[in-house]
Write a structure and sequence with these properties.
430 residues, alpha+beta, Beta-Lactamase, Phosphatase 2c, domain 1, 6-stranded antiparallel β-sheet, 6-stranded mixed β-sheet, 11 helices, 19 strands, 38% helix
């Protein structure tokens, strides 16, 4: 077996070095510049250019060169339908022995000024798809032979892999950047959810929020409007991700702006009307908001509410279930929609369960939903304990059902338990 010459050994080593570009964490432009330089050094020619296919513009974009002037780089457009490019994309290694007289050369004057004479063009392909062309240039005529073609194809093959990897790396960096933005958005959004329930004499309140993704569309909030009166609102913006989160943030601000009064039924109707008009102006096609809005007054032991297309809040009294359904259409659909308001008297020991549909729509690996009946059956078991214990037990029973199956909707739950209160020395006490 003939021994390799020093030049052959050097070429083999240089081609091997290309694999570091294939595996390296380089930006696309860094990889292209390194590859153009490597192609020149490996083949021993004057210059190299790398053009990548721009499918939108339907042409070949000059992305990197080595040994070429800025003037030559910008000499003009090269179409993917160029004779040489089409032949290369068809699998041919196209050799131009003298570019000065070859009719296939579009920019002859620029070529002559640059001092280029012969050219070799090969396609860069990845998984059978042409992604660009590698071109080598020499100031000598008839410079390229079969050995050069083999080297050019080897370099082009490594180029295609490195370029594809560089693109994937750029996409990974962008994905990580977006993921971090989503994480920070989730942190900010969760700050809008109350960290703890208000302390109201005569009420035991507990709540929790479990987002499905970093950001979501569920919302609950409390607003204490007097010593014995609190607004409880729970809502679900239909949608996912950033749009739903932004709408949720906007809607929360509106709820807080309007919910500033103990109010009668008429006052609540006015608040709901304002919220609906705001949602109609902000929601796009296919978007809307469900809301359950309630004012609980422990002085009068009553809850006045309006259900705007949300899951009905459940009143549990001595094991019996009453759904609070009065209200109307979801918000954000009809600016002229009308809403019913209802007031329900509370008794000592009554339990109000507010929740979003993510709680009952949780599914196990078999695709079975936990469901409303399971929720109510579980809730009735734990009405004797505290509101906090009830929330934890409901979530615990649901967790047993769904196991490790991933969920696709946020979960919000609020439990309010009523207790007898009395006024002592001008202060309401439980």
């Amino acid at each position: 077996m003939a021994k390799k010459t020093k030049r052959q050994i050097e070429r083999d080593e240089q081609i091997y070095q290309l694999t570091t570009l294939v595996a390296g964490d380089f930006s696309l432009q860094e990889a292209l510049d390194k590859l153009a330089e490597a192609a020149v050094k490996i083949t021993g020619v004057k210059a190299c250019s790398i053009r990548l296919l721009d499918e939108e513009a339907d042409d070949m974009k000059m992305r990197s060169t080595y040994g070429l002037s800025e003037e030559y780089r910008n000499k003009g457009v090269v179409s993917k339908n160029d004779t040489v490019v089409k032949a290369a994309f068809a699998g041919e290694a196209v050799v131009l022995d003298d570019m000065r007289v070859d009719d296939r050369v579009k920019y002859k004057e620029a070529t002559i000024r640059e001092g280029l004479v012969s050219q070799l063009t090969v396609a860069m392909q990845f998984r059978g798809k042409a992604i660009g062309v590698l071109r080598l240039y020499s100031p000598r005529p008839k410079r390229f032979d079969e050995d050069d073609i083999g080297l050019a194809r080897a370099v082009a093959s490594q180029c295609a892999v490195a370029i594809t990897n560089a693109k994937l790396y750029a996409e990974a960096i962008e994905g990580a950047r977006i993921a971090e933005q989503m994480r920070l958005a989730g942190v900010i959004q969760r700050r809008m959810i109350p960290e703890k329930a208000p302390m109201i004499p005569g009420l035991d309140i507990a709540a929790t929020y479990i987002p499905c993704f970093e950001v979501g569309g569920d919302l609950y909030d409390f607003l204490q409007v007097s010593d014995t009166c609190v607004v409880v609102a729970i809502a679900d913006v239909i949608g996912k991700g950033i749009p739903a989160a932004l709408m949720m943030s906007c809607f929360r601000g509106a709820v807080r702006a309007y919910a500033d009064t103990e109010g009668s039924g008429e006052a609540i109707r006015e608040i709901i009307d304002k919220l609906n008009k705001m949602a109609c102006s902000e929601c796009r096609d296919g978007e809307f908001v469900t809301l359950f809005y309630a004012i609980i007054d422990v002085k009068d032991m009553a809850v006045t509410y309006c259900n705007c297309g949300h899951e009905p809040t459940v009143l549990i009294r001595e094991g019996q279930i009453t759904e609070l359904e009065k209200g109307g259409l979801v918000l954000g659909v009809d600016a002229q929609a009308e809403y019913e308001i209802e007031t329900v008297t509370l008794k000592d020991g009554d339990c109000l369960l507010f929740y979003s549909d993510g709680l009952i729509d949780a599914a196990n690996f078999d695709g079975q939903f936990w469901g409303r009946e399971s929720l109510l059956k579980t809730a009735k078991k734990f009405t004797a304990g505290s509101a906090e214990q009830m929330v934890k037990n409901i979530l615990g029973y649901r967790r047993r059902f769904v196991g490790l199956a991933s969920q696709c909707d946020d979960t919000s739950i609020i439990v309010v338990k009523a207790e007898k209160i009395k006024k002592q020395n001008g202060v309401w006490k439980g």
